[in-house]
Amino acid sequence: MPAPTAGTTGAATRGGAAARLATPAFAVAWVALLALLWTLLPAALQTVPHADNVEQLNWSHSLEWGYLKHPPLPTWLTRAGIALFGPSALLTYALAMACVALTLLLLWRCARLLFDREGAACALLLCSANYYLMGRGSFLNHNTVMLPFVAASAWAVLRIVQGGAGWPVWLLLGLAQALGLLTKYQMAVVIAANALALLLGGAWRQPRFAVHLALASLATLLPLLPHVLWLQHHDFSTFDYAGQSLLADLPWLRRLRHAASFAAQQVGRFAPALVAAGLGLLLARPTRAAPPQPPPAPAAASGRALAALALTPVLLVFALAIFFGVALQNHWGSSTTLLLPLLAVAAWPALRAVGPSRLLATVALVQLAAAAWNVVAAQQHPEFHYRFPARALAAQAQAYWSEHADGRLAVLIGPDWETGALSLELPSHPDVLASGERRQAPWVDDARLARCGALVFWRADQPAAAQVGALFSASAADARELQAPEPQGGTARLQVGYLAPQGGGC
Q1: What ranges in 325-389 are assigned the alpha helix state H?
Q2: Residue 185 DSSP one-character state
Q3: Which residues of 450-459 are buried (b: 16+ CB within 10 A; e: fewer)?
Q4: How far apart are CA 386 and CA 105, in angstroms?
Q5: Where are the domains of the chain?
């Protein structure tokens, strides 16, 4: 037997490394590492959570079948986390990144249906370089919570298209769609993509297709009934919020501008993945002696289904903007573009030939660069959530309340972000009536306000009535200013007044 050369030894070593990276253990470890990084980074940098995280904390004081702007599932998730671990900013980042982690693992399972083990590892690595799943992944909002249901429904569709899937997979498809709709109505776009993928993948030719389709449809619709009843009793308030974008009826020139802005924003979100892929392709340039052989492409039916799953949401969003005048919101891209990396890996054999070892190096590099960029941004251009001294202001607010009332501080009224951040730092974690808008927290009724009293906050540079309503601004007694130094210099100022509790307080 001829002795191995240095080249063959190196190839064997690289092959062994690639095999180790193509295991479930690596997928779980990689995803867990990223979830830990993007959970701890905002906790270290920010003085208060993102506005979306604060909104979920504000709503989580009561379990409802819907909230002013959105369906209920993300708030239920927040409430469950609080019941187990107590309220904190770190909890909100961890819950959001748990959704991201589950999404990435489901995308990896989708890739395992399409590629060999090494190709699936490459797909996972590229998917993890999507900035929606990195820096923005810690935003606990409806876009982030919807992602695992998008990925779960995609896995179910691909599994069905490949044949042999029984009723449990169809049931999973229906439940994933229902839970997605209970998270955000944008899931309807994903459901349209699922339907087209099943059609193009030939699922309608399978035995018992009609029965299975009926099962999936019922599993999608039945869990929505309580939410529909809630909508009827609350004047379809979530539709009002959605209609601000859907019914914008933009002029033609603005439609094109919105579409172009949306496209540019998505390219920016995928910049880490594009850089990682480009570097990987450069490192994997073939030599004359040993040109790489790309792994096989997915089967035709699976490939058509994947194309429908990945492209239909994007095309529908652009069609809504251009033909119907919808004002596109850039964050819609989190779910709309989720499956594009899988499609790129399937359509571009060179990406599969790069190999997981090289992609791990390049993706790790862009992950570290993104983390460094967040640190620099926090120091050089600190926004509100990097500099608002919520803890110091909350201590002053508690002392102010103790001057005027005995008992527990149970209700805060004021701008949603500031007031929610203060509630998180106060020992009683009071309810928040954001902006003095009763529909934001209908569980804070007149009887509760009269019995418990409240602190009323407003920003000094704006009229109080514009921030909390004429009634609360006129009723707030003994107005004074709270001040606290900001971490990067400057002073945070917030006006406060109180509503006296009646009947002994809370």
Answers
A1: 333-336, 340-347, 349-354, 356-380, 384-387
A2: T
A3: ebbbbbbbbe
A4: 31
A5: 13-380, 388-499
